[in-house]
Amino acid sequence: MVPALALALVALAPAASAAERAVDLEPRESGCDRAGFCWSATNITVDVGDRVVLRFANPASNAAPHSLRVQGDVNQGTPVRLPGESRPTDVVAFNATAAGVVPFVCEVHSGMRGGVYVKPLPDPANEPPRPFIPAPALVAALAALALAARPWRRR
């Protein structure tokens, strides 16, 4: 019965997995908060550990060249692209390894700014204790162990 209990505990272990967050970024020439250009997305929120993929495209409908530069520790960017000149390889990808803000800009238009906001991991010290609710597989394994260990009596 012990292997059944071990198997149940392995099956109940939480799997840690990072998500991939892909965002299409295009320069906009209208609908911006201020005069000039802006990004189609300026505030992107991810979790620590996520893979961030920023896909840059400068549509033919734009009138100006643009680029994408992710600043800070990432320090990656795309070439300056004329309207309609975007390439499938115009991608900046990085892992969000620490909480904080990873800024991005257009190197041609300094007012075009945005940020990838990396949320911190929850602090277990600030979370209330969770009640223990055994999973059905664990309950079945413990019941089987209890029955196997119980001395049988004859009447």
Could you walk me through the main structural features you see in this protein, from its secondary elements to its overall organization?
- With 155 residues, the chain is α+β, with helices and mostly antiparallel strands.
- The chain has a domain at 20-121: Immunoglobulin-like, CATH 2.60.40.420.
- The protein contains 2 helices and 10 strands, in the order H-E-E-E-E-E-E-E-E-E-E-H.
- The radius of gyration is 26 Å and the shape is elongated.
List keywords for this structure.
155 residues, alpha+beta, Immunoglobulin-like, five-stranded mixed β-sheet, three-stranded mixed β-sheet, 10 strands, 16% helix, 28% strand, elongated
Shape: elongated
Q: How many beta-strand segments?
A: 10
**Secondary-structure-derived class:** alpha+beta
Gap between N and C termini, in Å?
27 Å
**What is the H/E order?**
HEEEEEEEEEEH
Cα gyration radius (Å): 26 Å
Question: How is the largest sheet built, in terms of strand order?
Answer: 4-10-9-6-7
The percentage helix is 10-25%
Fraction in beta strands: 25-35%
Show unreliable segments.
Answer: 4-15
CATH topology of the domain at 20-121: Immunoglobulin-like
